[in-house]
TrEMBL record:
Location of this chain's protein in the cell: Cell membrane
Entry annotated with the keyword Transmembrane helix: yes
Lineage top rank: taxon: Bacteria
Protein name: Branched-chain amino acid ABC transporter permease
Similarity remark: Belongs to the binding-protein-dependent transport system permease family. LivHM subfamily.
A Pfam family this chain is assigned to: BPD_transp_2
Primary location: membrane
Species per Swiss-Prot/TrEMBL record: Albidovulum marisflavi
Region forming the signal peptide: none
Classification via InterPro entries: ABC_transp_permease (IPR001851), BCAA_transport_permease (IPR052157)
Membrane topology designation: Multi-pass membrane protein
């Protein structure tokens, strides 16, 4: 193939990375933006989504599409319930103090990781894709499932935006974000809002994992890279900025696809880390974040 088709292939692979990364990073951004909690265990929610998808694929009979559809529904709900339980039993008792919650979520990270090792095992295991047709382009064939991942991610992100911007639930979340004490004085159950936001963040990470696990494999240590990339995206886009997070995910994902194709995956990670360093030096609030007063 000539340079043009190779570039197109790299961009298409980058779009898949961007789609999954945007879902995971938006969950992390929501938790910080509304709760002011840096969730170090976010990558393990991603891992739990992939591991639980493997269990669902083994337990649900019938064609792979049926098991995958069940995983898309059940796994985010399962991980979201674990996240809500962690919020109510741990973070709430710490009164969401920044330093304490960082330490607590580090502990939660190791608990979830070791639980997955105990119940799932150390092996990487595949999850069948719901379908396997390829879209034939003039230069090469491309996975129809990967295209479906990008479309599904876009639809979910649109739904999250509508939830936050156009619904009463989103209005309550924003009110809690601006001043939780005032929101409590107006009768808003802040504890329930925080539990719901933490569950939503964990559920989005799990959904991202369910979408990507047919392309990769489920493994109990797979949460580290999504966590680091999500932090990179959130820092570049601006802490708590949904728009900034999505745009930063596109930038990081597309650059990762191009650099990994033409050079090396390690160089792509170096470039992403360098981008974070430059943003922190020249625009600490991120590309779309608000400067602290």
């Amino acid at each position: 193939m000539s340079f043009g088709p190779f570039l197109l292939l790299a961009l298409m692979e980058g779009m898949v990375t961007s789609a999954v990364l945007a879902l995971a990073a938006v969950g992390l951004s929501l938790v910080f933006g509304i709760m002011r909690v840096v969730n170090v265990a976010h990558g393990e929610f991603f891992m739990l989504g992939a591991v639980s998808a493997w269990f669902v694929s083994q337990w649900v009979p019938g064609p792979p599409a049926v098991a995958f559809a069940a995983a898309l529904v059940l796994c985010p709900l399962f991980v979201g319930a674990i996240a809500a339980l962690a919020d109510m039993t741990v973070l709430k008792r710490l009164n969401y103090e920044p330093e304490a919650t960082i330490v607590a979520t580090i502990g939660l990270l190791y608990i979830l990781q070791q639980a997955a090792l105990s119940f799932y095992g150390p092996d990487a295991r595949p999850v069948p894709a719901p379908f396997s047709f390829r879209v034939q382009l003039p230069w090469f064939g491309y996975s129809g499932y990967k295209m479906a991942v990008v479309l599904a991610s876009a639809l979910v992100l649109l739904g999250v935006w509508r939830l936050l911007a156009k619904s009463r639930v989103g209005l309550i979340m924003r009110a809690t974000q601006y001043d939780r004490e005032t929101a409590r004085a107006f009768g808003i159950n802040v504890d329930r809002v925080y539990a719901g936001v933490f569950a939503l963040g964990g559920g989005l990470a799990a959904l991202a994992a369910v979408l990507i696990v047919p392309i990769q494999q489920a493994h109990y240590l797979m949460g580290t890279e999504p966590l680091l990339l999500s932090f990179i995206v959130v820092i570049i886009g601006g802490l708590g900025s949904l728009r900034g997070t999505v745009i930063a995910a596109l930038l990081i994902g597309l650059s990762d696809g191009v650099i990994s194709t033409f050079f090396a995956p390690t160089l792509a990670k170096i470039v992403a880390t360098l981008a974070v360093a430059l943003v922190l030096v020249f625009r600490p609030q991120g590309l779309f974040g608000r400067r602290a007063l």
